[in-house]
């Protein structure tokens, strides 16, 4: 639990009881996984589960062995997709300490998603404490190699057995962890993206909430992108099919030759990325002319052709900062700059990663040391 030396973590709202793991992974098996973790395929030994029921609120928090959860087949999450999630990473710093990056921002966004999906709010300190306890229990699972980290996946599901359509009266909050290497298997210097004719989010919908349903709807367009040999799918706005919104799970930035950096505004149909927000802050510090404004696909193509667009990159916790080299729509495509990583992209990525990994000062207090 939070100790006296913690200035950033207040006493937890809820104490997690501990269940010992009867048979944790052997050191050899763990080392084999950590040597080549990939993304999202291997999991640590523990998980956190906290229950919520109407009238009682959050209770019965446990940190124990990771394993299957029992759900009634009528549980509303299985029928009406009442589910939200988060994604953040734990890093080992050069001094051996373990750090999280802006976990309070994930906790706040989790509650914003919960509100949109008619789910109960979780006290932010409980969210952060649950993540922290899991990382400490599984600290041996944080990969050591360059660029690797422990990816944390907090999520909430509706568990009430009821087929009527209304918000459920019981939920589970769960946190699992997965050692993570590079998000993009190819390791290519820049990704290629496919502009989908499908829509991800409409005004008034759930585009700004981090909910599984948004991802379910993106799987067909993502498969289409993969089939055509691209790495990611890009969505335009629902109303005019003209304005660039975001990728399936990453926000986008455009760097122009006049020193301006453009990213689509948080209009309610875009996920408010914490990486996006951090990069906006750093770019403003660099004196770039940062603009949160709409950017059309036609402008994008024209700016790439004229050379006015120097760089484009996508960002998110999983893949951090990833240059976009090529864009395809229908039968045509275009290349941005040299088609490879640009200088600004590389510099912003390096600055962000250095703060996250503790090799540069943290002027904004984004890093939370947990052990
Ligand atoms: C999570 C997510 C992002 C990136 O958010 P970060 O906080 O930077 O990880 C962007 N778009 C979508 C749709 C997302 O789900």
Explain what you see.
This protein has 8 helices and 18 strands. The protein is of the alpha+beta class. The protein folds into 2 domains: 176 residues, 2-Layer Sandwich (D-amino Acid Aminotransferase, Chain A, domain 1); 165 residues, D-amino Acid Aminotransferase, subunit A, domain 2 (D-amino Acid Aminotransferase, Chain A, domain 2, Alpha-Beta Barrel), CATH 3.20.10. Strands 1, 2, 3, 4, 5, 6, 7, 8 and 18 form a 9-stranded mixed sheet that branches. Strands 9, 10, 11, 12, 13, 14, 15, 16 and 17 form a 9-stranded mixed sheet that branches. Helix 3 packs across helix 4 and helix 6 crosses helix 8. It starts with 16 loop residues before the first strand and ends with a strand. The N terminus is likely disordered. It binds pyridoxal-5'-phosphate (PLP). Pyridoxal-5'-phosphate binds next to helix 6. The site of pyridoxal-5'-phosphate (PLP) has 13 residues, from helix 6.
